[in-house]
User: Fold this.
Amino acid sequence: MTFMKLPPELQIKINQYYQARYGGKWFQEKDVMDTVSSALKEQILVVMCSRLLKNVPIFQNKDENFINAILLRLDYEVFMEGDEIVREHAPGDRMFFIDHGQVSMETESYERELCDGDFFGENCVLTKGKHLATVKALTDCQCFSLTFDDFYEALEDFQDVKKEIIEFHLDDANA
Assistant:
């Protein structure tokens, strides 16, 4: 960071990010997850993330195998207090599930706080549309994200679920 002549305040923010991201444990979750068997990986993700999916209407009452296929595609992300996670009207391609932390969701007409177990950006995972609100981290936040491409890739193996979600989305859009 010094070699790149980053300003001291940015160096501090980078150090804080690594502390929040790894909590003093310097390892990559993805590398660890890649070393365990697929069965164990699925069990770990079910314990860590299945409660997050149960809060989202498009995932409620869905085939357990489909939910597990989605779980295997989630990415872990950390945002620092003050980070702008998404910006209103900016193109988006993923949704977020808050595992731990607080965010503020703002539009011109409302402001709402979200915390552990909440989600945002579902419109973007369904349509690859624009974000409907600006979301900022109020605290350090640990989230999981699901991209549009990963979502539709998982749906390819579950045509009945795909049809149901498309119908749900069309009904919701027409309401």
User: Anything to note?
Assistant: The chain has one domain: 36-174. Residues 36-174 form a domain with the Jelly Rolls fold (CATH 2.60.120.10). Residues 78 and 142 are 5 Å apart (CA to CA). The chain has a mean pLDDT of 84.
